[in-house]
Amino acid sequence: MRKLLVITALLEAGTGVALLVAPVLLVGILLGASLDPASGVAVGRVAGAAILALSVACWGARDAGPGRASAGIVAAMLLYNIMVAALLIHVRFGPGLTGPGLWPVVLVHAMLGGWCGVCLRHPVASGGKS
Question: 2: which residues sit within 8 A by CB, 6+ positions away?
Fold first, then answer.
């Protein structure tokens, strides 16, 4: 579980900071679309703050070992990763938005979601080794 939490913390920290600093650029890479100059940038930055908070929670739990608190954070990240992958797939096949970063991001979130599921299913076996 520790490796999962460290990798998740680092990836999401990068994403959160990127959304806070340059939401227009990140959305362009991800969806090949632009943001409305005022409201879209504001919402992108709020999302960046939320993702950065997830990163901090994962980083803080990295040494907690298997237990209820770690399992709660991993369960939240499982939900987050599944929902992000599903929403991005919907954006591609619904409105038809796509950028060069879309499929790599979908793949990363699907893989992290699977890893979260494995850690939750086998918490003792994944307790410092996954």
Answer: 62, 63, 127, 128, 130
Residue ranges in 32-101 assigned as alpha helix (H): 39-61, 68-93
Q: CA separation (Å) from 123 to 2, 62, 113?
A: 11, 13, 15
Per residue in 78-98, pLDDT (tens digit) is 999 999 999 999 999 999 999
- pTM for this predicted structure: 0.88
23-43 residue pLDDT tens: 999 999 999 988 878 888 999
Query: Which token pair is 103?
Result: 């499929």
- The b/e string for 15-48 (b: 16+ C-beta within 10 A; e otherwise) is bbebbbebbbebbbbbbeeebeeeeebeebbebb
